[in-house]
Amino acid sequence: MLSCLVLQIGRNSVPNWMQKKNCIIKKKVKKLQHVETSFDSPKLSKVTSISDRSQIKPLDNKRKRKTKPLIIDQLGNELSNNITHRLALDCEMVGSGKDGSENQLARVSIVNVYGDIVYDKIVLPREVVTDYRSAITGLDKEIISSKGVPFKTVQGEVAEMIRDKVVIGHDIKHDFDALEFSHPKPMIRDTAKYKPFKALSKGNTPSLKKLCREILKKSIQEGAHDSVEDARCALQLYRMHRTTWERSLKRFKKKSKNIQAVDDEDEVSDESESF
Questions:
Q1: Using an 8 Å Cβ cutoff, are 139 and 227 in contact?
Q2: Cβ–Cβ contacts within 10 Å for residue 231, how many?
Q3: CA distance 116 to 119
């Protein structure tokens, strides 16, 4: 009985802070032992290079890329059905009329925010083509007649795909003119109208080729234009400046709330066309 009492007194003599400290030390030792053994486990693999790191890093730095099944289109492209909120669009036009100066839609290409092709079709012009502009478009009568899709079909599919989406492009007004429909200005990001890009051409409209050379440090359009490549370049330019671009747009929208519009045309000022 006496020995039990002595043991009990000995236990109670250890202060509470000492007991807590001992528990913390034991937990740290166990954690270190677990870490040492975990690196030897075949289930874990450490990232050892930049290329390995890029495989697990999301492309948009915020969300993981959604993997979607790919399909092969009539042009041999692998099409993704991952229709993201932001899409980049580019068109190729052939000429009609006596001098071939009237634009006729001949190809439409759309890529998603990751640069994956989601739409790419050759279009059958509704007017008689007098200039295929093959050196620029890479198209000719044989390609268009064999792979072309009716204009109305393409027009409806593209309109449906970009509905309620942010559309990115270069001098995109001409593309929508060829498609013969419009898109809400607040949902357009035009790299030809963005003021920091226009500054490279002293306020004039810069060509996509110039922007790629000056900003992306790459050469495009050396031969025939590729509408997929042009859409991807416009997308890349936008993504490089997206944070600043979107902040500028938000500031403009906030400022414009205090401006009373005279009519529908003046409702959005010229500055908004930069976004």
A1: no
A2: 28
A3: 9
How many Cα atoms are found within 13 Å in the side-chain-facing hemisphere of 124? 10
Q: Do residues 122 and 108 lie in contact, with contact meaning Cβ atoms separated by under 8 Å?
A: no
| Residue 109: exposure state from Cβ atoms within 10 A (0-12, 13-18, ≥19) | buried
For residue 241, count other CB atoms closer than 10 A to its CB: 16
- Predicted model pTM: 0.68
- Please state, as a whole number, how many other Cβ atoms lie within 10 Å of the Cβ of residue 145: 10
Cα separation, 272 vs 274, whole angstroms = 5
Measured CA distances, 188 to 70, 142, 275 (Å): 27, 34, 6
pLDDT digits (tens, 9 = 90+) for 186-231: 999 999 999 999 998 888 899 999 999 999 988 888 878 899 999 9
Q: 274 pLDDT band (50/70/90 cuts)?
A: very low
**Which pairing describes strands 166-169 and 188-190: parallel, antiparallel, or unpaired?**
parallel
Residues in contact with 17: Cβ distance below 8 Å, sequence separation at least 6, in sequence order: none
- Buried b / exposed e over 31-57, threshold 16 CB at 10 Å, is eeeeeeeeeeeeeeeeeeeeeeeeeee
